[in-house]
Design a protein that fits this description.
CATH topology of the largest domain: Transferase(Phosphotransferase), domain 1
CATH class of the largest domain: Mainly Alpha
CATH architecture of the largest domain: Orthogonal Bundle
Distance between the termini: 121 Å
CATH superfamily of the largest domain: Transferase(Phosphotransferase) domain 1
Radius of gyration: 31 Å
Shape: elongated
Helix content: 40-55%
Bound molecules: adenosine-5'-triphosphate, magnesium ion
Order of helices and strands: HHEEHEEEHEEHEHEEEEEEHEHHHHHEH
Number of helices: 13
Strand content: 5-15%
Number of strands: 16
Structural class: alpha+beta
Strand order of the largest sheet: 2-6-7-5-4-3
Amino acid sequence: MVRNASESAPVPAEGVNSTANSAVVVVVVAVVSSLAVLALLVAILYYCYIRQKVRHKPYPAKIRKRIPEQELRMVNIIPPEAQVFTYKQLQFATNNFSRVNVIGHGGFGSVYRGVLTDGRLVAIKQLDREGKQGDREFRVEVDMLSRLHSPYLLELVGYCADKDHRLLVYDYMPNGSLQEHLYSDGISGNPPLLDWATRLRIALDAARGLEYLHECVTPPIIHRDFKSSNILLDDNFHAKVSDFGLAKLGSAEIGGHVSTRVLGTYGYVAPEYALTGHLTTKSDVYSYGVVLLELLTGRVPVDMKRPPGQGVLVSWALPRLTDRNKVKDMVDPMLEGQFAMKDLIQVAAIAAMCVQPAADYRPFMTDVVQSLVPLVKHTSSAKVIMTPDFNHNIVTLKSSSIDSGASN
Ligand SMILES: Nc1ncnc2c1ncn2[C@@H]1O[C@H](COP(=O)(O)OP(=O)(O)OP(=O)(O)O)[C@@H](O)[C@H]1O
Ligand SMILES: [Mg+2]
């Protein structure tokens, strides 16, 4: 027969009773402290688990840089400040659009170097396309750029919409576009090659340009055509983002998108935008990642002449970027010996995040800027490996009428 414990327990004497009480207290204290230690352990484990999860979570849409009120520039309240030029004034500035003044050609038309009557050196873009798209790009460029002001964006000096003429007048950038330097052969007379420190600084300047568009403007502006030929370099190789003809106002809602026709440049367009037409600031982040890969590898975004599997830069680079052993082999050979391995790994990690196929996993431009700042700070002062006789696109302003224009 099984008996109840109380039945079998002998009745304790008084001295025995106080000893038993202190034993109970000891047991209770021991149990309570073990429970407390256990609770603490569980809390620590839970904290570690949550941290781990957060680290692997996509970038939450709500994290946005807090920008001081005075820095915020509402797109629709700042009046345009661009100067209006007559066609005649620009004819005069470019020596009647002389061929010697041509510094480049793009989708919009030819670009000329010119001098305004006050002596200011400018780049003048002449629309040479007919049709609605060209006119629309012209209007968007004037509308947006004349309201935006940042040291990281190319300044629009003015425009001309005289009769059928459509021209845009910008600050002249003596070192041309990043693209010209990345794919130069570096020989005499051609654009100089860029060293590691200069490339990092250009990456940071360009990131700041996009950060300004995404974070300092309400609603945000999506550039839509961010690429190495739209990053221009001043005389100190500081970079400015240019070409807003395809720019679009993004959704004012956090995490929202706008639906639009797919425009941009092959090799730079984010996959989700190409597939669905859904445009967000993260589409620009993808294009930025492609430019970062160009800076790292010295390879163009799409080159079908390369061996199979290497033609599309992102597909070739992505698996290598997070592999310590492979990442060194993918770096532009001309950067050999110029970087610390830990810096390279960090830049590669930023590029890998930016070109993630899923937009939510890409960082915000603010995150990119913050990751690049310390890298640029501790990298030795930037210097450019100059090629002798380099003169951007070999154009000189020798014409007498331009000289006289400058002095007027
Ligand atoms: N403000 C400027 N200062 C100096 N050079 C410039 C300036 N703007 C453009 N250029 C030169 O003109 C070239 C052509 O520029 P443009 O923006 O027309 O074409 P793109 O960027 O090559 O192509 P896309 O039309 O697709 O943007 C640039 O690569 C650059 O060398
Ligand atoms: Mg351009």
